[in-house]
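quick one
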Amino acid sequence: MATAQQYDLAIIGAGINGAGIARDAALRGLKVIIFDKNDMCSGCSAISSRLVHGGLRYLEYGEIPLVYESLHERRYLRLTAPHLVEPLRITIPVYAGARRGPLLIRLGMLAYDLLSFRKTVPNHEMLNGVEIHEAEPGLEVEGLRAAARYYDAQVTFAERLVLENLLAARSAGAEIRTHCEVTRIVVEGGEVQALSFEDYAGNTQEVRVNTVVNAAGPWVDRVLEAAPTTTRRLIGGTKGSHIIVGKFAGAPQDAFYVEAAADGRPFFIIPWNNQYLVGTTDIRYREDLDHIRASGAEVDYLLAETNRVFPRASLSREDIHYAYAGVRPLPYKEAGPESAITRRHIIKVNKNVAKGLVSIIGGKLTTYRNLAEQTVDTIAKLQHRKLPSCRTRDTDLPGAWGIDRARERLFELGTLSAAGIERLLHIYGGRAAAIAELASTDSQLAATVGGENRVLAAEVVFALREEFAVTLTDIVFRRMMIGFDADQGRKMYPQVAAIAAREAGWSQEQEVQQLDGLAQYARSLRVG
Ligand SMILES: Cc1cc2nc3c(=O)[nH]c(=O)nc-3n(C[C@H](O)[C@H](O)[C@H](O)COP(=O)(O)OP(=O)(O)OC[C@H]3O[C@@H](n4cnc5c(N)ncnc54)[C@H](O)[C@@H]3O)c2cc1C
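structure w/ flavin-adenine dinucleotide:
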């Protein structure tokens, strides 16, 4: 067996937190390797509400520092990844008899504005019943007393945010190993020495490392089982589900944040990817982490609550394009209401398991950058090293610049519609110029896929060559993002598979296997 490579830091889990830590650590000069047992962003980070938000709801639980942190992280993300993180106007309707009356909502809004000073979005405004009815005629009017309007931000494709962090990490020297499951944390003399992992081909390999960050999200406790010493449970996950529907009768212009009649929990109805994302639920969960589906009861709850607020919608299960569900990696708490469990993150140094092992508990998409900064500072202390200061607050993510140039290059290709060009820019930002470059070298790659002149064949090759996609599912659902079209992009699968097979050198049998895997994944998101 060849001598294992030595790294300063190994990260287990390439969700938003692992990817953010990899980027920060690599930018500060550490030799980093990051693993994911599946594709990057295939865990909790892919099933969120996709909001980059302060978390208005957390004010109710007195989590002022978390709201403050989130609102400022929202600003940094808007500045460093404007192509991925966009402002989102949200309306909160206030009905007679609701748990949260107009005064409480107003106070929350004022606090939100105060905590987000220097923000890049406007302050809130209050509307009376007539004004809100004029603005959103589809909204239930009975008992409607007022509404609050405020701004947060949305990351349509969290997958691309994770990816761009990994791309930046790779540019700074990090090694990215997706589809590699860490199976053993090797500890000798009480200190971490190495990690064993199983690669995509099923081979077991080892890397030498003395600092490991366990950023496995809901799987954090499972990963800790790979170390020789056991520890108390860290994660007490709650399940959250979303449904995705098309534009419905009376559908709102704005995103809506509504108090559910059934249990008083606030939930979102968000314009997203030319559809509406409705969610979420929040239920304690102790079952299988690898195969989670929205339950019939969750789906019916979300449909009923949406129909109540937008009565013309009359949504039923047949209107659902797809749904997704997952588990929040929250700190373990035996009892109490789910919504009261803190959403703050904890950077846990597992010194009772092994010196050099750190686990990440909780965290939000919104706050990943700060979490990464704090984690790398913790690693520096553990390693008794003086590292350069963190630079991620004002360092652009890779797609943030060159967007106008990319637009020109895509236009010059002459094969994409105006909507197609905007689609590519929305997904790849300025990096779309490199896709145009690739397409300009080969007329087959300049052709479009799917018949609407909005998807470029070159994207498939780009995903494999430049964005470390391995499977067809990676390409469709986590690189090109066509898996989240209303029809899950299904009519494009054979064409995308053929291009990928040519590029990756798949045999006919492998191509069929990849197509089966993709179809199975797409099916797993449909509501039966
Ligand atoms: C329903 C819901 C809605 C949410 N909405 C929002 C929101 O709108 N805004 C917001 O800011 N936050 C939101 N969050 C919170 C946020 O999504 C999560 O806190 C965050 O994504 C956690 O990221 P992570 O990187 O820690 O975990 P994950 O994204 O789960 O990443 C962990 C990774 O570890 C990998 N892994 C596991 N075991 C191994 C192993 N042995 N070897 C290698 N890899 C392994 C997994 O494959 C996975 O990819 C929401 C969460 C939920 C559940």
